[in-house]
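We modelled the chain as a single entity of 279 amino acids. Its sequence is:
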Amino acid sequence: MATRVPMNTIFCVIDPTTTEQRALKRAGEIARQAKVALHVYVCVAGRENLPAEDRNDARAAQIARHEAWLRELVRPLQDDVLKITIEVDSQEDWRAAIAPAARRANADLIVKSSYRRTAIQRRLLKTSDWALLRSADCPVLFVKTDRVTPLDKILAAVNVAAEDADHQTLNDMVIDFATVVAKNTGAELHAVNAYSGSLNFVHPPDLAKRVGIERNRAHVGDAAPEKLVAQVAGKLGAPLVVIGSLARKGLSGAVVGNTAERILDGLETDVIILIRPGS
């Protein structure tokens, strides 16, 4: 098991459509506490609809305007964060641009605002969350609330009954990550495991032993994962939930609405999703 969560650079995704930058607030606080660099990124739509002779000038003016805006946004953080860099990107598909930009910045954590989507919206829309869950190379912190509360509890969502190697490894990632963050912050670690039907019952003592926590911090239930995780997180008042997701390729990767996304939509608290390439 790892002894710490390696982190040198936090990559913060800015939403250019709003003045309320909850992701920047959270990323700035993490960067300050962890004493790491913060890379602030925004992607704006290109100017492909303009004549070729005007396109470059329009794009340059747009980038310059947003760079000035970013400098003002990060100014309050300058004295508290070790190092801050900004980047304005111009791409037609800004959703697909986030993961490559984070890769270029050697990001160890992506921080992004997330908003509730209905099942129909998830099915019909390839959102930026959808794109990140299938392409990011590092953990993604989805900021769901403007509230800043002490990190006193962490809830790790796992499936210890999984038999395939991909999900077993994903369980290890979630448990290791949540354990390290809990130790580093002094937070109380809890775990939750949903199952379907009595034949798949997960014994709380087995879950507690697998995660390395006390029995009363192991929560199980016969329910859909998104419902049980939201219920337990709400009951505990946990400010952070840690879950895993397989970034599958091909047809299975194109399916909208996987378990991680459904859990994300059902929560009103911050969520860190650890992404493992699937087969």
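As a brief sanity check on the tokenised model: The two ends are 24 Å apart (CA to CA). The beta strands are 9-13, 37-44, 83-90, 109-113, 140-143, 153-157, 188-195, 218-222, 240-247, 270-277.
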